[in-house]
Hints:
The structure holds 2 protein chains of 2 kinds. Chain A is mainly alpha-helical. Chain A has helices spanning about 5-25, 30-55, 55-90, 95. In chain A, helix 1 packs antiparallel against helix 2. The longest helix of chain B is centred in the N-terminal third of the chain and has 26 residues, at about 50-75. The N and C termini of chain B lie far apart (about 65 Å).
Amino acid sequence: MNPIQIGLLAVLALFGVGCYGILITRNLIKIVIVLQVLVKAAVLALVLGGQAGGQAGLGQSLAATVIVADTMVAVVGLAMAVQVRRRLGSVDLSAISTLRG
Amino acid sequence: MAEGGFLLVIVLGAVVCAYRAMTSPRILTSTIYLAFVSAATAMLLYSFGAAQVAVIELSVGAGLVTVLLVYAISVVGDDATDAGPIIPRPVAVALTLLTVTMLGWMAFSMPARTGLASVPPLARALWQERVLDVWIQMVLIFAGVLGILGLLAESRLARLTAPLNGNGHRTVRIAPRTACGVGADRPAEALGKEVHV
């Protein structure tokens, strides 16, 4: 296997773990953690795509932007989790859901 | 360029840590595993020639995000006992396998070079060709600052906006104890109850 294929293998594995985690997790903070894993797969994919397509600078630039965006998603998600815990006393998705049906 | 075996070991470590971050019963343990995933990802990025992105990933992913998570855990609590997934686990496994298979089929079937490119001109791409991304990052960082303000905000607003009773008092609910010890002096029988202040 060449390095590009090993990197793609890492992308697929991290994406699979993150995708499964999103589907089974109900804790808000754990959802933020699993989202971080998913975005790491996306960052790796962007860098590898840039390398494979001969536009390494473009891929790395987009990867840096995605890292910043992911961090802000984590910050806002954690702030929401803290406020939800303070107001409702729980961070479980099913416990805080007001939708019925 | 690193050897293939070394890269495979890093990939295996990253995947194991990611799985443990997802399945660990304590959120703090999950946070530590996530930091290891970030470190392994940074090593992979460095091996693929993206040294600048690796530094950003290591400092932000394994540093800033870990600190934020630890602070949030100290406020929210460390218990992550899930009552069970919303959808059945076999369905989740099937959906994940289907998605990963489709993604892998697309990724491995695309024509790619067998080797890695030379040292990438990230500075030129970022500051000349993708300058809009820099502006977007500035806006995102501003949004992140607002998010941190929300993370650090106390529940004082809820107390101040609570309506006054007829005798001039406000009714507030006693918040539960946190993992960092805030509220440890509150009696257990008073947690979650309403008091007049």
